[in-house]
């Protein structure tokens, strides 16, 4: 009963308030309409305020909100408001276009301008090509000095353009690829100058990070894959360039020493040059290994991906470097022609005028590389550059030290023989001139040792000076109690005084017979032994070859008695002089006897000088030499 009463009273109240509620709702709708009308009337003023404060986003929002009203009632009392609003929006569009084309505006502001223009139904597609050209110019400027901020801007730009122009993805991919291609090309150009591996890695790591950042926006550009492949080529080029620079430095060190080869060499200058060349080769290789170690040291994603390849490239690089350096040594020695790429290193050395000492230095340098440098490099490679394995199995190991050692052992022997041949040929020309110039059949009685002996000894001294500064081992210096310089066989004694009573003809025949018999026993003597990398071996070989040439030149002439005696005098003086330089006296004495025997055989009247006369002439020569060189012992 009570519930029914409450419900009845509530219905009564609702009925009494119904009319009032409808009036309230009607008034509320009228108020909203008035607000909208007021908004329309106030819109031109609002838009002008937005233009002054550059609140173009609010201006577009206000205008697009009022646009349905203008479309419905624009020809009524709102006509003036519509016209004023459209004029204001024309200014807004102009400002948005200016912002869009302004290079000073940040990319976010320019992207917002495009979005606002599209909301106003302004045709922006025709602006796409122009904007992309501006983007291309912007990227061109940024690639010269790439910074993290620049890459951030580029990433935002690409993202904005993809939103604004969804169909521009292909062009953006081309721009991104061109950007990184140009930046990598800049690094390639820098490789022409030798740059530290740490600097190269810093540039490559920065580019890798940039490519990864852009890849998050445009993965279709495949920039990480492109960067990895390009980085691979650049590091390989960097390694090859480093080896080439080292080869050129070694070549320059050798060539620079002999660029003034015609000038007199100071004492120990050659030894200093030899030591410098050894240091350049050995330390240069160690320095390269330390440089290359930076390429595999670290946990950077880029280095981890390329580590095995880098190890193989370093090992291959040393194999190729030593092979090319060997070929370059042959070019420097004049034994082979230079390649176009190598000609620059040989500008100061004419191949047809290669200094003989350079060839000897190359021979000794080959021994040093074989015995010292290769073992050091092999040890370092095994310690720091083990692994690799990216090479195909059929190509074998990248670095084969045994093969390189055999190569330099062979080349060293060739250079050593080449040096000996060059020296021998030069002295042989002197001998040829000596024996083809005079008329031996009309030679006058000998009065002194011929000056050609001085020239010959001068050349021999040059060989000794070069060899003792470059090759190991000391030359044994002989000291004789006999001050005359002649040998015991040439001294006078009672037995020889008795022999002077014999006829000259009988003595000549007896001497010939004695020489012939002695020759039969001496033929078992091994004159030319294997050439070794020692001072004694090289000097002895040069002397022996020259004396052998001397013997052949003598055999081509015909002598009278005086000519034969001149040969006898010259050879006797050489015998005592050459003992100062070589240990193999027996071989030298044998060859000098061979020269005398050849002159004896080619003489019409082979009567030798008497020992007292021979001693007198030799002593006179020694006295003259001492007078010219007072300090000589």
TrEMBL record:
Protein transport found in the keyword field: yes
The organism of origin for this protein: Urochloa decumbens
Superkingdom of the source species: Eukaryota
Keywords, in A-Z order: Golgi apparatus, Lipid transport, Protein transport, Transport
Annotated TM spans: none
Listed name of the protein: Vacuolar protein sorting-associated protein 51 homolog
Record PANTHER family: VACUOLAR PROTEIN SORTING-ASSOCIATED PROTEIN 51 HOMOLOG
GO BP: Golgi organization; lipid transport; protein transport; retrograde transport, endosome to Golgi
């Amino acid at each position: 009963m009570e519930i029914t009463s409450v419900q009845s009273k509530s219905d009564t109240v609702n009925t009494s308030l119904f009319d009032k509620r409808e009036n309230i709702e009607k008034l509320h709708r009228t108020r909203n309409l008035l607000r909208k009308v007021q908004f329309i009337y106030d819109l031109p003023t609002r838009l002008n305020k937005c233009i002054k404060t550059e609140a173009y986003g609010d201006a577009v929002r206000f205008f697009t909100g009022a646009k349905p009203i203008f479309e419905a009632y624009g020809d009524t009392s709102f006509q003036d408001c519509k016209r004023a609003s459209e004029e204001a929006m024309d200014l807004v569009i102009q400002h948005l276009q200016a912002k869009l084309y302004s290079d000073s505006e940040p990319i976010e502001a320019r992207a917002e301008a495009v979005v606002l223009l599209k909301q106003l139904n302004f045709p922006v597609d025709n602006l796409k090509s122009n904007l992309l050209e501006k983007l291309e110019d912007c990227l061109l400027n940024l690639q010269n000095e790439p910074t993290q901020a620049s890459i951030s801007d580029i990433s935002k730009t690409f993202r904005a353009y993809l939103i604004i122009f969804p169909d521009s993805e292909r062009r953006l991919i081309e721009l991104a690829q061109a950007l990184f291609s140009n930046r990598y090309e800049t690094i390639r150009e820098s490789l022409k100058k030798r740059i530290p591996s740490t600097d190269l890695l810093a540039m490559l790591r920065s580019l890798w990070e940039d490519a990864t950042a852009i890849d998050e926006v445009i993965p279709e550009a495949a920039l990480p894959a492109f960067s990895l492949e390009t980085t691979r080529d650049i590091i390989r080029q960097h390694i090859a360039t480093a080896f080439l620079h080292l080869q050129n430095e070694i070549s320059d060190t050798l060539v620079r020493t002999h660029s003034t080869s015609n000038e007199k060499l100071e004492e120990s200058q050659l030894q200093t040059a030899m030591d410098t060349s050894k240091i350049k080769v050995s330390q240069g290789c160690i320095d390269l290994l330390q440089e290359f170690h930076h390429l595999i040291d670290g946990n950077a994603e880029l280095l981890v991906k390329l580590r095995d390849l880098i190890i193989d490239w370093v090992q291959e690089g040393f194999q190729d470097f030593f092979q090319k350096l060997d070929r370059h040594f042959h070019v420097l020695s004049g034994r082979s022609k230079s390649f176009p790429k190598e000609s620059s290193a040989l500008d100061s050395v004419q191949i047809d005028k290669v200094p003989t000492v350079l060839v000897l230095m190359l021979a000794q340098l080959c021994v040093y590389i074989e015995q010292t440098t290769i073992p050091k490099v092999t040890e370092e490679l095994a310690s720091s550059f083990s692994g690799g394995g990216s090479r195909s199995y059929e190509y074998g190991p990248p670095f084969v030290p045994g093969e390189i050692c055999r190569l330099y052992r062979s080349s060293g022997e060739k250079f050593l023989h080449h040096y000996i041949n060059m020296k021998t040929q030069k002295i042989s020309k002197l001998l040829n001139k000596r024996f083809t110039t005079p008329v031996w059949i009309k030679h006058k009685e000998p009065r002194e040792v011929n000056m050609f002996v001085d020239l010959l000894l001068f050349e021999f001294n040059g060989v000794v000076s070069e060899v003792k500064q470059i090759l190991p081992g000391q030359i044994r210096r002989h000291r004789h109690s006999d001050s005359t310089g002649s040998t015991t066989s040439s001294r006078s004694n009672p037995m020889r005084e008795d022999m002077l009573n014999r006829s000259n003809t009988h003595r000549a025949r007896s001497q010939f017979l004695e020489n012939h018999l002695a020759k039969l026993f001496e033929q078992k003597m091994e004159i030319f032994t294997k050439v070794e990398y020692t001072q004694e071996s090289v000097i002895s070989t040069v002397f022996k070859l020259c004396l052998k040439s001397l013997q052949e030149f003598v055999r081509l002439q015909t002598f009278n008695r005086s000519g034969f005696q001149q040969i006898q005098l010259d050879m006797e003086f050489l015998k005592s002089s050459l003992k100062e330089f070589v240990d193999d006296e027996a071989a030298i004495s044998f060859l000098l006897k061979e020269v005398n025997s050849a002159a004896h055989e080619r003489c019409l009247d082979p009567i030798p000088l008497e020992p007292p006369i021979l001693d007198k002439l030799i002593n006179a020569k020694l006295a003259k030499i001492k007078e010219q060189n007072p300090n000589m012992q």
